[in-house]
Amino acid sequence: SAVISQKPSRDICQRGTSLTIQCQVDSQVTMMFWYRQQPGQSLTLIATANQGSEATYESGFVIDKFPISRPNLTFSTLTVSNMSPEDSSIYLCSVGAGSQPQHFGDGTRLSIL
Amino acid sequence: QKEVEQDPGPLSVPEGAIVSLNCTYSNSAFQYFMWYRQYSRKGPELLMYTYSSGNKEDGRFTAQVDKSSKYISLFIRDSQPSDSATYLCAMTLGYTGANSKLTFGKGITLSVRP
What we know:
The complex is a heterodimer.
Chain A: E1 4-7, E2 10-13, E3 19-25, E4 31-37, E5 44-50, E6 56-57, E7 68-72, E8 75-80, E9 89-97, E10 100-104, E11 108-112
Parallel strand pairs in A: 2-11
Antiparallel strand pairs in A: 1-3, 3-8, 4-5, 4-9, 5-6, 7-8, 9-10, 9-11
Chain B: E1 4-6, E2 11-14, E3 19-25, E4 32-38, E5 45-51, E6 54-58, E7 61-66, E8 71-76, E9 85-92, E10 103-104, E11 108-113
Parallel strand pairs in B: 2-11
Antiparallel strand pairs in B: 1-3, 3-8, 4-5, 4-9, 6-7, 7-8, 9-10, 9-11
């Protein structure tokens, strides 16, 4: 399976600031996904990022808050904008490859003060 | 009703016990069913996946899907302390396009006592 690297692994940020999370894959993949994992909650899909097209956002998530880039088949970024304490969460990148289930990176643990 | 319900836990068992982890779901269109294992400070690791109803075995792990009852299970035989982790069930309509969204249960934390 693909090796997925996320940066940063953790961060503590001030409210009102923005943070960009990077996801790098060691092979070309068609589909990349961004999820949020909040304490006591199900892992929830934020958006699907396909190379060459706009990201597709799930209900409850908007591009202004979570802009996503997908410049090529091995890389994507998720920005968490104008952060508030409610954005404290684990953000996970995953990749899908055709007929195989998704594989995940180790996530970015984000705390907002 | 949530789309996927998972026993809340936590669950603590002695080493060597048989563990049964369960999820129910409401969307009969789900076709692919997965179990992920997540260790502390790590991302979810794909443990097992099955298509439609039936059983799949891999070593000490057996995944079971009953689509008629909308019920999936993961059995762990001869549980080991290294099995201590959070287990997440997930399901999807398919692996391509809009069908590829994973819907997860909340996860159950398992602790295996030596």
